[in-house]
Each structure stands twice: as structure tokens, then as C-alpha cells.
Amino acid sequence: MTEPSFATPEVLDPPPLTVTPAPPRVWMFWGTAVWGLLIFVAMFLGQVGAILYLVWDRGDPLDLMSIQRVGREPAALALSVTMGLPATLAAVWLAIRIKGAWFVDYLALYWPSWKQLLLGAVGLILIVVAWETMSRSLGREATPGFMTDLLKSGRDKGAALMLLFAFSVAAPMSEEVLARGFMFRGWSASFLRVPGAIILSSLVWTAVHLQYDLYFLAEVFSIGLWFGYMRYRAGSLWLTIVLHALNNMTAVVLTMWLGS
After folding, report:
1. How far, in Å, CA of 143 to CA of 255, rounded?
2. 118-169 confidence digits (pLDDT tens)
3. Which among 68, 126, 132, 188 is most buried, taking Cβ atoms within 10 Å?
């Protein structure tokens, strides 16, 4: 008679689970490029919409001549620049929302350390002083003439504070959210990596200032490279927003009230 076997049955290992990685919650190269263009269009429409409203509110005909005439007024231009900010933020929020990412994390809206802020400011001062010295040695104006005329006209017409807010708060925030915020985030995660993202986002930021000549565009590009480096080093968009704001505010104050 065969005795029953009490051996432990062989236990087979379960098949390994195949885990599908979640798609990255960031727009890559082409997604960032397309959305960047849409964000720029939103910024432009916000600015133009403010001018169109002023033309309509005055009862003027909605033609190109009226738009150009109103757009040259300091107060109207300040309102136009300011209204580009909410339009930009809304478009960026939509792009990030579609990706399912966190707005603050995507744009690196974290406050930098004081050491990082000091380093960024010192580097910016050195760049600006270098360009100022070069301008004087070449006999060039340190500030574009049309900007000098606009700011002084705004001061004389009572629009100084509006222009100060537009160029020192609204414009830096709009441009930094687009260039060093949204575009840098996506492009740095793509095949461009960080160096390519710094260069390309600086080129885009420079293209936003095509009202300047090549000399001033070169200055803008060099500052953009520094901002891009500090955005990467500090991991903070607030840092570049503050630096951008300080740079613009200094230029506006010197031009409007000190006649420099």
C-alpha cells in the first residue's frame, strides 16, 4: 500500500506585471512650439483688444487709422501691454491643464534664495554696464529713441504710473511666463536639453522685441541667455521675473524722471 505524499506542491512564480509608464506631463518640442505660438497670439489679441475697446469707447470708426492713432497714446499703450498679461496667463493655464500638470510646478513658480537673487542681479548689472559702455564708445544712444519719447510723453500726460506698471510688472510677467516658463520647461525636456532650451527661448524672447534695431536685439538676446541660465540654475521663474522687472523699472525711471 502506497503511503500518501505530504510534499509541498511546487508554487509557480506569477508572471511579471508589465507597467506602462505614464506619459510625461509636459509638452515636448513640437507641442511646446505650437502652444507657444498660440500663447503669443493670445497675448497679441489681449493687447489689440484693449486698443479696439478704446477706439470703440470713443465712438471712433474701427479702422486702421483710428487704431494706430489711439495705439500711439501713452495711456492706451500702457493699457494694451497690461491686458496682454491675463490673456497670456489664461492661454498658458489652458495648455498646462490639458497636459494634466500642476501650474506652479510646470512653470517653476518657486521663490529663489537670496544668494540666487543676488547672483542674478550682479550678472544682469554687469551685462547692462558692458552694453552701456559699448554704446557710449560707439556714440550710440543707450535707450531706443522711440522709447525715450514715449516714456517722457507719458510722464508729461499723466500716464507715468500706468507705463511704469505696464513695463515693470505686466510685460516682464507675460514675457517670462512664455519664454523662461512655458517654452523653457518643454524644450529642456526634449532633445534640445537645457542648453538648447536656453538658446531657443532667448531667441523667441528676442523676436518679441523686433521693434528694436539689430544692436538692441543683440543686447536683449544676451540678457535672455543670462535669464535662461539663472532659470535653470535656481529652478525658479520668479527669479527671472524679478530680474526682468528690475531691469525694466530702472530703465523707465531713469528715462522718465532723470532724463537719462
Report:
1. 8
2. 999 999 999 999 999 999 999 888 777 778 888 888 888 888 999 999 999 9
3. 188
DSSP H or E run through 21: none
**Burial category of 178 from C-beta neighbours within 10 Å (exposed 0-12, middle 13-18, buried 19 and up):** buried
From residue 203, alpha-carbon distances to 115, 174, 220, 221 in Å are 27, 16, 9, 7
Residue with cell 543676488: 118
Q: Which amino acid is residue 132, in one-letter code? A: E
Q: What is the pTM of this model?
A: 0.88
State the Cα–Cα distance between residues 21 and 250, nearest whole angstrom. Answer: 48
Start-to-end CA distance of the chain, whole Å, equals 113
**Given the C-alpha cell 489711439, which residue does it identify?**
70
Q: Report the b/e string of 125-158 with b at 16+ CB within 10 A.
A: eebbeebeeebeeeeeebbeeebbebbbbbbeee
Q: For residue 77, give Cα distances in angstroms to 10, 17, 53, 187.
A: 81, 60, 12, 32
Nearest to 225 by CA among 251, 247, 206: 206
| DSSP designation for 10 | P
Phi, psi at residue 8, to the nearest 5°? -70, 125
Residue type at 248 in one-letter notation: N
Query: What is the DSSP secondary structure assignment for residue 181, as one 8-state letter?
Result: I
Q: What distance lies between CA 156 and its chain's CA centroid? A: 30
Three cell numbers at 143? 535707450
As given in the structure block, the three cell numbers for residue 156 are 508729461
